[in-house]
Amino acid sequence: MHILTVAPVSRGALQGSLTYFSKDPVAVGMVVVVPVRTREVPAIVLESREASDAKTSLKSSDYAIRKITRAKPRRIWLPVFLKAVEETANFSAQKLGEVLLALTPKTILDAHLEGFLPELIVPETNSRFEILGIQNSTEMRYDAYQRLVRESFVRHESVFICVPTEEDVLRVSKALGRGIEEYTFALHSSMTKKRVLDVWKSVIDKKHAVLVVGTAQYLAVPRYFKTLVIDEEQSPAWRTMFSPMLDLRVFVENYAKACGSKLIIGASILRAETHTRTRRDTDQYDRISGSARKEINTLLVDPRKEEAESRTKTGKRKFVLMTSVLRELIHVAMKQNERIFILSARKGLSPITICDDCGTILRCPECENPLVIHNKEAKGIKFHVFVCHGCGLTRVPENNVNETCPHCHGWKLSGMGIGIDRVSNEISHFFPNAKQFLLDGNRVKTRAGAKKLIEQFEKSTNGILIATPMAVPLIGSVPLTAIISIDSLFAIPDIRMPERIFALILALREKTTRTSLIQTRSDDTTIFRQALSGELRQFTENELSLRKTFSYPPYGTIIKITVRGKRSALPVEIENLKNFLLTYSPIMPTTIARESGIMFRMHMILKLPEEGWPNEDLLAKLRALPPHMTVEINPDNLL
User: Fold this and answer.
1) What value, to the nearest 5°, has the Cα angle with vertex 157 and ends 152 and 163?
2) Domain limits, the chain
3) Domain 304-347+418-533, CATH number (from 3.30.1330.90, 3.30.360.10, 3.40.50.300, 3.30.300.130)
4) End-to-end Cα spacing for the chain
5) Helix orientation angle between 272-281 and 536-550, rounded to the nearest 10 degrees
6) Fewest CB atoms within 10 A around its CB: which of 183, 194, 424, 574?
7) Could you tell me which CATH class the domain 556-633 is placed in?
8) DSSP state letters, 585-633
9) 282 pLDDT more than 50
């Protein structure tokens, strides 16, 4: 009899490893099926030993060791893949089995367990890991990748280009697969099970070198890739939204190291921490462009100047949503039958509603997020509703007209900020004959719906697309682009928000063929001027200087622990957590945020010095936390 220590490949396992017995020996790295409570789940073998070697521990055990359910083990993952997953789990302070499950397509895992896919043949690798960076426009990066793929094929070497979203998979595979369609494979989550299995088998069986474009979980395909590419490296979509909390870029890099592959990291603007690592880890730094030049007209306009002039002339205060400069550009574009794209950072009419009498912000009664005013229309009748973007609550104001302040019961409420509905109303006022297309997460729920709306806009002669940032990756070239409101994004407690705003402006600038305009009420316009002029190196140096001041990555590691539960229990749990992690000087939270119903959350922050993570002692403590506490390493949002 043999004693097996396994990691359940399942969500919600209370322990990172469990113990079972087997009649036959099972090699480390093989997958078996084991009973966990009332169900059967796959599990990967971490350790296998003779029962005779563990007699003492077995006799002293206070629980009965169960037998594995299925005795025929299978090898599902390559050793290099498992090594990368283990490194990623350690860095992310997550359980190995949960990380394996997150990084393996369910279709492939099920097919292996059911015997539809053959046992793996481990390929040989004898290369040396190196890391390079490519910072340039999308067009220039794609040209570089095309040359890379052709050169790799000549040497009979395969290439995997890893991107964050399905939309990126389709775009990159289409751009790079021209002329080599037979050897180009795309893998993403919207494919049918049959299609995934067919492509998976084709990638494995192809004798010729291949180009695979896919999201990170499809790196589980058992084939050696001499070169791995992380494109759109700055995208926030690389982070998983649910447990296990992972940065998939970390996994891709760990996989490249385990394979001894060349890793190329590409983006229009690389993250600040990537700059420091490419400088340190490679001599080939000349691939990083210090500027992004494009011959278009760029304008930076402050609406407050126009408001001041109006107040001087009339003696009255007037809020200017669209400056006269922008209105004139739209007028000229429509006259020339040119399409126009207008971006606003927020949905709805106004992101915040405030009581003019007492200053109270109207909040959702369920989760306490600010209520946002939206336009609605039903049976030909237009009216306003309040919508919570946190929990989805929708409320029609009293008599479809008014809403009262929950604090003083006053009726004098004002909308603050600019949403795309408000921009649409302003466009209708100045350009009543303009054909408008509105795109945000409330109006369009699916990728197919968003693409359909974009296609209608691109077929129009002088249509105006008014959208949130979600539309930017989907649109093609546009003669006139304008960011009408973006200042509110700086209020989000995201340590990478300057990078994201900069990348957003660069992406919009790439898609502009004639004129790009930004309206801002900010006193510090450095980031806007640098983005419009393409000063990449200067922006990165400023960002790194700021990061160093606050010991943000890459000059330190931030660990965020989120505790969820009933409001009355959270202070006690946070105090216990503080005592548990006292050695690491935790930063205590100041607020309790409501999630939904009776569930609330609080955060605790740990700041570690550079090179202070992973730490074995701290890692063990973090993995011992109960399921209602989640851990994020170097999170974007600190609140």
Assistant:
1) 80
2) 1-74, 78-293, 304-347+418-533, 352-416, 556-633
3) 3.40.50.300
4) 51
5) 100
6) 194
7) alpha beta
8) -PBPP---EEEETTEEEEEEEEEEETT--S-HHHHHHHHTS-TTEEEEE
9) no
Distance CA 423, CA 420 (A): 5
Pairing outcome for strands 381-388 and 394-395: antiparallel
Residue type, 67: K
- Ramachandran angles phi, psi of 238, nearest 5°: -70, -20
pLDDT above 60 for 612 = yes
Q: What is the pLDDT of residue 106?
A: 92
For the segment 76-124, what is each residue's pLDDT rounded down to a tens digit?
898 999 999 999 999 999 999 999 999 999 999 999 888 888 777 666 6
pTM value? 0.86
pLDDT at 323 over 50: yes
Distance CA 396, CA 383 (A): 9
Residues 6 or more apart whose Cβ sits within 8 Å of residue 638: 493, 494, 495, 558, 560, 603, 605
How far apart, in whole angstroms, are the C-alpha atoms of residue 367 and residue 593? Answer: 8
Give me 363's structure tokens.
């909040």
Sign of torsion over alpha carbons 485, 487, 492, 495: positive
Cβ neighbors of 479 (< 8 A, separation 6 or more) are 333, 336, 338, 339, 340, 512, 513, 514, 515
Beta bridge partners of 3: 21, 49
Instruction: Sort 471 into a burial class: Cβ within 10 Å, 0-12 / 13-18 / 19+.
Output: buried
Q: Considering the chain, what is the average pLDDT of its residues?
A: 86
Q: What is the CATH number assigned to the segment(s) 78-293?
A: 3.40.50.300
Q: Within 346-496, where are the H helices?
A: 420-430, 447-459
Residue with tokens 């922050």: 605
Distance, in Å, from the CA atom of 236 to the CA atom of 248, rounded to the nearest integer, reads 10
> Which band of pLDDT confidence, cut at 50, 70 and 90, is reported for residue 485?
confident
Q: What is the dihedral of CA 561, 562, 568, 569, to 10 degrees?
A: -50
The single-letter code of the amino acid at 378 is A
Give the C-alpha distances (Å, rounded to integers) separating 449 from 26, 85, 262, 438, 452.
49, 35, 38, 12, 5
Closest CA to 80 of 281, 250, 245, 252: 252
Residue 526's identity, in one-letter code, is T
CA distance 355 to 410: 7
Residue 504: how many other CB atoms lie within 10 Å: 20
Contact 66, 1 (CB under 8 A): no
